[in-house]
Specification:
This protein is of the alpha/beta class. It is built from nine helices and seven strands. Strands 3-4-2-5-1-6-7 form a seven-stranded mixed beta sheet, sandwiched between helices.
Length: 237
């Protein structure tokens, strides 16, 4: 039985400053690092075979912390190994190495999993932006499915890149029975969840994902959803 683990990155420096972040590459703050470490312990019983992240550092940090601080990974004696795009002109095969695949967890950063691009809003404080343009307009930019913020992407645009990547790259490993960790962002994960749970366009913008909280899906050998568990949800109640 395949397991898919989705986790929104821990709190970033701009999350705490209430800024639109999008594709701006800011790191986790102290709380975000702690959230990722707690998530790692929640995943201590899961033997992760492969990890996908976005290209953004907050996503990569979260994924790597979940792997290097997980008891399951430590006990297996495995190390995460980053795999970069060989088509990048600056890539010179620097990560080529001799080793044993069973001692490694491959980590693949992918642009398709990047956060929604907020265009001209990136770097602006959300409360100040609402004061300038009105709550209704900012809510429309943030929470509608198809409306794009100025110069940016809609959630529909994010779905259009994240879901095909899920089908072509991630689902392949799930169909092989592997346990897959995806560390990404609120909107790229909404896209995948929308597909997995068959959530409507009207409902998906309302889905809230907490930072640093793993969601575990179990899928059958055809990729159909069997169960969902939000780790730590029971304790929070």
């Amino acid at each position: 039985m395949a397991q898919l683990i989705l986790i929104r990155h821990g709190q970033s420096t701009w999350n705490s400053a209430n800024k639109f972040t999008g594709w701006v590459d800011v790191p986790l703050n102290h709380q975000g690092l702690a959230e990722a470490a707690v998530a790692a312990q929640k995943l201590k019983h899961y033997s992760i075979d492969i990890c996908f992240t976005s290209l953004l550092i907050r996503s990569i940090q979260t994924g790597l912390i979940c792997l290097v601080e997980s008891d399951a990974v430590i006990n297996q004696g495995k190390s995460p190994v980053m795999h970069h795009d060989a088509d990048d002109p600056d890539w010179h095969g620097w990560d080529h190495h001799a080793g044993h695949p069973d001692e490694e967890i491959p980590v693949f950063p992918a642009q398709a999993l990047d956060e929604r691009f907020y265009g001209d809003l990136q770097g602006l404080n959300k409360a100040e932006t609402a004061a300038q343009y009105g709550d209704e307009q900012v809510h429309l930019w943030r929470r509608s499915y198809a409306v794009r913020p100025p110069g940016g992407e809609s959630l529909a645009d994010t779905v259009a890149r994240a879901v095909p990547f899920f089908k072509s790259r991630i689902l392949t490993h799930l169909l092989a029975g592997e346990t897959v960790l995806v560390a990404a962002h609120g909107n790229s994960l909404r896209a995948i969840i929308m597909h997995l749970e068959n959530i409507s366009e009207a409902e998906i913008p309302l889905l809230e994902l907490k930072t640093g909280v793993p969601i575990v899906y179990e899928l059958d050998d055809e990729g159909k959803l069997l169960s969902k568990q939000i780790l730590g949800e029971e304790a929070a109640r």
